[in-house]
Amino acid sequence: MNKAEQLGLELAQEKKVDFEIGDTIKVHYKIVEGTRERIQVYEGTVIAINNRGVARTFTVRRISYDVGVERVFPINSPRIAKIEITKKSAVRRSKLYFLRGLKGKASKLKERKGRVSLKSIPATTEAPAAVQE
Amino acid sequence: MRKALIGKKIGMTQLFAEDGSMVPVTVVELGPNVVVQKKTADKDGYESIKLGFGDVKEKDLTKALAGEFKKRNVAEMKKSLREVDLFDSSFEVGSVLTCDIFSENDFVDVEGVSKGKGFQGTMKRHNFKGGRASHGSSFHRAPGSMGCRTYPGEVWKGKKMAGRMGTDTVTVKNLKVMKVLKEKNTILVSGAIPGRRNSLVLVKGK
Q1: Percent of chain A predicted with pLDDT > 90
Q2: Which class would CATH give B4-119+169-205?
Q3: Nearest beta carbon to residue B13 from set A8, A32, A74
């Protein structure tokens, strides 16, 4: 990474994400309508995370009225108000593009229960301190 | 009189605007510039200042260049010199200018030397159309006819032909200053500017 890209990351105040591929998430996205601002919730499965420095993005797929919809969000976007994880799934690959060809029950991912992946803990969390309290 | 500072192109990145859209920006290390000489109408016939940029040790400079600083008692030696318009008559020899003479949302012109492309044909260098690639064509990327027949019977001077491309002085106008980071001596301008990384650029205000 060159100096310019590093500076870009600093200025964007890079966000850490705690969701993983295959998770079902709710993205709370700010939408500007004229002068009003409201928050729209978009729920779907994370099928890809593309790492491109400041311009990192993730793709969320959902089936809306029988039509597959995919939205790409920049991770560092100031318009993302909040991301909630509603379900975690057991998946073995980093890009779930195979879901695009599947419909109905076949496109369901196996749920992962009980097991918390190390990756899902944000790097900023201080785990030992929480135990002492 | 336009304000101007010498700087160095660092590279490109992206910024998020307030509305969430992404803006491509170029990072420019700008200043501190030191005033090495002040030219006056009386003495030199016109007014300008000579700016120096780029920290350097004296032993790495030629004697001629180091002499410029010594003669005028400028303590800080700089690598590159450049003459610009006198945009503030309060400047004295030795005063230091930093990037905060520009502010956010200013529009600036940036001058630099474009990347060298080597010897290039007419299609790349002058945007000639060339011929078709297939269907029996034997005319692909050649420049085509140039001297005609009896008239003019010669190739006009200045005819666009193949040759060395790039390393031209290019000015990109009206770039918006997106951010001024004083403690880093850095500004971010929207869009691309000429030259490779670490090349010298001149940022001119309005």
Answers
A1: 27
A2: mainly beta
A3: A8
State the Cα–Cα distance between residues B192 and B109, nearest whole angstrom: 11
| Structure-derived torsion over alpha carbons of residues B118, B121, B125, B129, reported in degrees to the nearest 10 | -160
pTM of the full predicted structure? 0.80
Which of A9, A11, A33 is best to mutate for the B interface (most B CBs within 10 A)? A11
Q: In chain A, which residue's Cα lies nearest the Cα of B18?
A: A78
* B22/A5 Cβ within 8 A: no
Measured distance between the N- and C-terminal CA atoms of chain A, rounded to whole angstroms: 40
User: Which pLDDT tens digit goes with each residue over A46-62?
Assistant: 999 988 888 889 999 99
Q: Before A78, cis peptide (omega within 30)?
A: no
Indicate the domain borders of chain B.
4-119+169-205, 120-165
pLDDT digits (tens, 9 = 90+) for B61-106: 999 889 888 888 888 888 888 888 877 778 888 888 898 899 999 9
B197: distance to nearest CA of chain A, Å? 10
- Find the CATH number of the domain harbouring A95: 2.30.30.790
